[in-house]
Amino acid sequence: MSQLVRRNQALLSEEEKKQLVTAIWQVKSRGSYDDFVKTHVNGAAFYHHAPAFLPWHREFVRLLEVALPTPPGTPTLTVPYWDWTGTDDPWADYFMGGNGRAGDDRVMTGPFAISGGWNCVDPSEPIPSYLRRQFGAHGTHLPTGPDVTACLALTPYDSEPWEAGGDPTFRKSLEGVTAPDIHNRVHTWIGGNMNLASAPNDPVFWLHHCNIDRLWAQWQQEHPKLTYQPQSGGPPGQNSDDLMPPWSSVRVSAVLNHRSLGYVYDTENPTAQGDRMRPGDTLRGGDSIGSGDGRYRLVYETDGNLVLYRDGERTPRWSSGTQRRSPGMCVMQMDGDLTIDDADGQRVWSLGTDGRGNRLRLTDEGTLEVSGLSGEIAWRSAHEVMA
Fold it and tell me: What is the pLDDT at residue 113?
């Protein structure tokens, strides 16, 4: 089974973003999307300002991801994350659409605007049927890099009193119960529907919570000896072995390891798959990617060399020339450069496409291509067989 990778929305192509929009609309059209909204409304009081805030939303986002239909012939769709500490936002007209207009906060652009027929529901209170946003109207700003760094340094995961007060903990800080107030601040900054318990009416909800989940996964990696709290003795539904309603068979403990749920983030150096390497993707000694027709293979050899072969041939068609270096990792960096580090973490090779590339693809013609988000080729390997 292929590894599912959740990726930074800023590094997705326009076509990939449009595929996600289409999939969300399909979930909406069959009625399932509104059920997600109602589930969040009904669980708001129980799973906000509580230790299981992160486990409950991890499962919630995962279930939406499972519900997304995947176009034939494409990789399985995953929910991307929106890293609000950066400069690349999701408000393009072909993706999440823009801010609401003055007066009624009505979103007028994008696939979820009123002109597109997107309607909002809330079983707990009457709200306008159209999607609303009000960027920055409440005097807040989006979380910064230093805010996130400070949050990730906090320990333990949580402590009494569980709802609020007491010493700052990671969960309370990430959720926004205490400073630096990460999660809640994003909801408040977007405003409109995102300020309500029915926040999933705004599809950007999923991108936001995907990033929250990513930060929890990062905290877990940085603090491997620390466990979820409370293990026992806490409020019902918040202990490690407790069930999380409305799901009749999902316990808190079942979702503590995101990898066991079948997905990783591009920031965790996932193994490259198929015929390409995307930002964050990695090849380790013996790993490879293949052309779509299977005739060519790019292999990161166990001698540290990155080599392109044609099926049945022993002479490389292209090579990084890094043989006899202890194999470490070959990585498509987030800045678009393909690099090789040895086992000691020393940089031994770079393709030099940083700032111009985004992904590497092995074509059926046996060439390697590094292209940017627009599809413009930043580098292409030669066709000649190496001597």
Answer: 95
Among 44, 16, 181, residue whose Cα is nearest residue 6: 16
Residue 36: how many CA atoms within 13 Å on its side-chain side? Answer: 27
Q: Can you tell me the distance from the alpha carbon of 202 to that of 213, in angstroms, rounded to the nearest whole number? A: 18
Pairing of strands 327-332, 338-342: antiparallel
Q: Which two tokens stand for residue 73?
A: 């012939």
CA dihedral 62, 64, 65, 70 (to 10 degrees): 160
- pLDDT band with cut points at 50, 70 and 90 for residue 132: very high
Model pTM above 0.85: yes
d(CA 105, CA 111): 16
Provide the CA 258 distance to its chain's centre, in angstroms. Answer: 12
For residue 271, what are the β-bridge partners? Answer: 282
In our burial notation (b when 16+ CB lie closer than 10 A, e otherwise), range 6-35 reads: bbbbbbbbeebbebbbebbbebbeeeebbe
Mean pLDDT, rounded, of the chain: 94
**Alpha carbons within 13 A on the beta-carbon side of 130:** 17
Cβ proximity of 96 and 23 under 8 Å: no
- Among residues 361, 224, 213, the alpha carbon closest in space to that of 281 is found at 361
Locate 175 and state its tokens: 């959720």
Q: Output the DSSP codes for 78-143.
A: ---B--TTSS--S--TTTT--PBPTTT-BB-SSTTSGGGT-----SSS---SS-B--TTTTS--PP
Label residue 202 exposed, middle or buried (CB < 10 Å: 0-12, 13-18, 19+).
buried
Instruction: Give 4-19 pLDDT, tens digit per residue.
Output: 999 999 999 999 999 9
In this structure, what is the dihedral angle of CA atoms 116, 34, 198, 135, given to the nearest 10 degrees? -20
In angstroms, what CA-CA distances link 55 with 195, 242, 250, 321, 350?
Answer: 21, 11, 10, 46, 39
